[in-house]
Amino acid sequence: MKAPKRKTALLVTAPCVSARPCRARAASVVRTLATLLALALTFMLAACGAPASNTNSASGSGAASGSAAASASATPAAPATTLQIFAANSLQKALPEVQALYSEKHPEVSFAESQFLGSGDLVTKLKAEPAAADLLITASKGSMDDADKNGSIDASTRRDLFDNDLVVVTKAGSGIKFAGLADVSNPDITKIAIGESGAVPAGAYTNQSLNSIGLYSSDTGKDGEYNAELAGKVIQESSVGNVCKTVANGDAQIGFVYSSDVYRFEGLEVIYTVPADSHKAILYPGAVVKASSNATQAAAFLDFCASDSGALAIFAKYGFEVL
Questions:
Q1: Which member of 60, 114, 131, 252 lies 3.0 to 4.6 Å from 85 by CB, making a disulfide possible if both were Cys?
Q2: Which residue range forms the structural domain that includes residue 273?
C-alpha cells in the first residue's frame, strides 16, 4: 500500500521538476506576442495615418479654396455708374465716340443717351431740372456763365476743352461765291440760315460778326435787329444742326455754322471762314453739375475728355481744335 503512495507523490511533484523551462517558454511566447502586437499596431497606425493625412490635406486645400473664394467675394466690384451728359448740339458726332472709348477703359461707367441741344436750351433745362444731368458742355463761355449764375454747375470743376471756327457753308456744288461778310448783301443770296442767338451760340457769334460791318445792331450778338436789307433774308433755326440741314436741303443758299459741323452732315461745302477777330472766341467749356449724384465720376470723365490722347484724337477728327 505504501508503494502506491510514493508513486502518487512522484506524479504530483513531476511538474515542479520542469517549471523553469515552462517559465522560459512562457516568457518567449509573451515576447513574441508583444512583438506581433507592436507590428500590428504599427501597420494599423500606418493604415489609419495615410487617410488622415489625405483628409487633412484635402481639408486644408478645401479651406484654402474656401478662403480664396471668401476673399474674392469679399472684394466688392466697383459700383456701376450711368452718366447723363448735356452737350452742345455740335458735339453730336464726336462725344458718343469719346463716351464709348471711356467705357472700354472703365467698364463700370456707362452713359445714358446724351442730350444734344443748343447751349442756351441746355442751360434753361438744367435750371428747371437741377439734377437732370451730371455734366454740362456748352459751345460758348456765355452759356456756361449763365449756368454758373443759375447755380447749376460746380464752378471749381469748370474748364475749357477746345475751340472752333465759324464758317459759311453752301450746298455742295452750288457754285456760290463768297469773298467776305459783306457778301451777305449780295442780291443773288436770298436766304441765309442762322442759329437763333438766344439758344444757339453759333447764332450769337454770327450776329457779332455782322455787327462788325453794321448789319446787326447789338455787339453782344443777342437782342438786336438785322439791317433792313438783311432782315428779310434770315431764317433763324433752333440749332446749328438745323442750319446745316436747311442749307443742305437747298432751303437757304448759305448758312453760318462751326467748322466741325461739316463733319456731321453730308452735302455741305465751306466757302468762307469768318475772321476770328470779328466775334468772341468760340470756346467749349465743361463743368460738373452741382446737383449731380455722380460728381466724382463726372469729373473723371471731364478730365478724360481734356487729356486722354484717344479722346483728343476723336475731337480733332471732327474738326475741334483741342486747347
A1: 114
A2: 166-278
Beta-carbon contacts of residue 211 (< 8 Å; ≥ 6 apart) = 217, 218, 219, 221, 224
The dihedral region occupied by 184, where left means phi > 0, alpha psi between -120 and 50, and beta the remainder, is alpha
Q: Is 67 helix (H, G, I), strand (E, B) or coil?
A: helix
The amino acid sitting at 287 is A
* Beta strand 234-237 pairing with 283-288: unpaired
In a domain, 56, yes or no: no
| Residue 180 and residue 108 share a domain | no
Does residue 172 share a domain with residue 159?
no
Report residue 170: phi and psi, to 5°.
-135, 170
DSSP letters of 94-146? HHHHHHHHHHHH-TTEEEPPPEEE-HHHHHHHHHHSTTS-SEEE-S-HHHHHH
Q: Does residue 13 sit within a domain?
A: no
| 135-137 and 85-88 beta bridge pairing | parallel
Local structure of 230: helix, strand or coil: helix
What is the pTM (predicted TM-score) of this model?
Answer: 0.72
Question: Locate cell 467698364: which residue?
Answer: 107
pLDDT digits (tens, 9 = 90+) for 98-156: 999 999 999 999 999 999 999 999 999 999 999 999 999 999 999 999 999 999 999 99
1 domain-assigned: no
Co-location of 267 and 308 in the same domain:
no
Q: Is residue 227 part of a domain?
A: yes
Contacts of 63 (CB under 8 A, 6+ apart): none
What are residue 292's DSSP bridge partners?
Answer: none
